[in-house]
Amino acid sequence: MNSLPHILHTMSYMALPLLLAMVFHEYAHGWVANRYGDATARLEGRLTMNPLAHIDPFGTVILPLLCLMLPGGFFLGWAKPVPVNPARLRNPRRDMALVAAAGPGMNLLLAIASAIGLSVLLSIDPTLMASWPPQPGQAPRGDFLGMLLLPLAAMALYSVFINVLLMAFNLIPIPPLDGGRILTSLLPAQPALALSRLEPYGMMIIVALIMFDPQIHVIRTITGTLVNAMAGTILTTVLE
Questions:
Q1: Is 26 a catalytic residue?
Q2: Which of 26, 44, 199, 240 is catalytic?
Q3: pTM attached to this predicted model
């Protein structure tokens, strides 16, 4: 278990990127749904960038803190889902796939934007990354530029990985995750109906995958190999 000072130190850099990633993710779902005929999110006050409208006490606050406290490096969180009524969409099957894809698509855009932001900060002060992460016995930078830019660079770097992680996790093809809803919209009617029946049990399946992950390595593959490869590709492409 990580120490309280370590958790607080990490959260000081991760909290804002994580909150923005979740809020933009849900806003994208609501915006696309509204664009294609379903105004449910707008009418319920959820088509907003106000974080308070999207915070889920467990998924946005408690679970990320538990992930930081537990060993293994697994990190997970979510915001309150934006309400979508497929019956109000002009073309329910096609448009529902677009609505579902909007959230992960937004996270990809945020990851790229964060990498670009990091590139700008490094162009201003190329020594920033030499000071991150802080090493034991290493004095923090006391100059104004370092005190201002180093936290921003750290948050931009965390933002790349957080958004790629949320994108990859949400694309797991199990409803109610976005990947499951995309697949349900693309499959023929009978397989789509069978997959949609999993939705009430989807989160239990995800929890089971997490619990048994030390043996089956499904989640670790997504959060480790895949996320690191994708985030590394984005950073390498943008920073070079």
A1: yes
A2: 26
A3: 0.88
